[in-house]
Amino acid sequence: MFATTSHLSAALVALSALTAHAQNAFSGAVGFGAIATGGNSGTTYHVTTLADSGAGSFRDAVSGSNRNIVFDISGYIVLNSAVSLSSSITINGQSAPGKGIGVMGAEVSASGKNNIIIRNLRMRQGRLDDDSGKSAFNMGKATNVILDHCSVEYGQWDSIDAVGTINITVSNSIIALPIGQQFGAHVETGPSTFYRNLWVSAHNRQPLSKDNTQYLNNVVYNYQAAYTAANTGGYFSHDIIGNYFIAGPSTTSTSNDYYQMNNKQSVYASGNYLDSNKDGALNGAAANTVGSALVLSSPWQSTSRSLATLTAAEAVTYVLANAGASPRDEVDAYVVSSVLSYGTNGSLITNQASTGLSNNGYGSLS
């Protein structure tokens, strides 16, 4: 199927700034993961079957490095076991015809790999996977990874696991409805950029940032604990700009929009809003108080202000219209509809089937 853990040193900060400016992944890529080169200069592999393995399969496509992967088919690829990516690959989910492409039933893993670009891919683990210690997407100990316009739902351990990962961007994506631990994303090492994402109905870790982080123009709905640093995470810096936290039916303490932000953390927080009243309308107030963290007078990362171009209210409008894999499917429409209730709908779940959606809760892409 072939065709042709301390604050960063001054030196590392300088290197991170260069990384944040690099945009090698694709036009419009931002943040620390944008330095990823993927398989853009390699051979093109056409995925031609929804089968789990064999010639023309997704599993075969990601088994070799230096590959630019495109899809000639649409629908769900049902994984019988976790699939491991190779280094230096680009996954172009936007190339799929019709209603797009997704994988379901097991973990997608870039663990220990480098230079990974994934766009417009749905990754939905769910209860089809009998290994509750796996995540929907795992990039532990990877380097230079960017997820853009992806939809990550029904993760059992985490939606996104990025422990020990260097240079991460998650942008324009939906991270929602985790089951099992009900956690969003766990990041250690970094640095990381979370940009214009929609986080919905998680218990915690939206994300858990044990690293130096840019958190820009995100929307978090129906949280129990939203942006989290953790009491034992170490000394890190956080730019938190233009985000909107919206309480929902599962929110037990609205003040946990920032969670475990202790005096080991240095935070620049500006333009963030919290809608705490669950009254069916978006009508929040400024929310830039970050626990006992050291308050920074300017961002730790030089690009943060220039990337956070939306107000918190504008971020809600933009993210609800644009986040996730395209075209928007049944699962993502369900997620967005709960947010649009602005406090009256939504719940934490333990099984994707409880959504009542077709295909045992996974929805249909055919």
From TrEMBL:
Keywords: Glycoprotein, Metal-binding, Signal. GO terms for molecular function: metal ion binding. The keyword Cytoplasm does not apply. SUPFAM superfamilies: Pectin lyase-like. Residues 1-22 form the signal peptide. PANTHER family: PECTATE LYASE C-RELATED. This is Polysaccharide lyase family 1 protein. It comes from Neoarthrinium moseri. The lineage of its organism: Eukaryota, Fungi, Dikarya, Ascomycota, Pezizomycotina.
